[in-house]
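Field reference: sequence -> structure
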Amino acid sequence: MSRLAAGVVLVTAHEPALDAEGPRGEDVGMTATAFLSVSLDPPLVLISLREGSRMDDLLAEQPLWAVSVLSENQRHIAGRFAMKGRISDRLLFEDIDYARGTVSGAPLMGGALATVECRTEQRVPSGDHTLVIGRVLSATAPESGAGPLTYFRGRYRPLG
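Structure field:
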């Protein structure tokens, strides 16, 4: 499968605070290449999450999430959120340009080629992954001269 080029996205969600009087919630993010459009009517997308990952566990409880389609200039973001054994997600978001989604509350990356905010419609266990199908609640595709960030043969690459 390493010979199949794939677009790179950042999946994000906001983990709400456990207690309204306790510490605020935390933003969570993960790099993914298994993201696709499922349906135009209704608008549905699919993301594949490693079973038991932090994002899989969070999206089992939190139905709202977002995806930012990364541009070729955002390789550092993809690498940062793909690290194994990484530091707190709060620190990973610290110096990145993002806006909070008005529908999902999840971080949307500034400079992304497109962003979508979703609500989970269905979760399908599949081998060692969970396929999460989300209804698109909001989508943006700002004008950009940048190309997409792709992943091919184990490396991030610009298209072309």
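Note: The chain has a mean pLDDT of 90.
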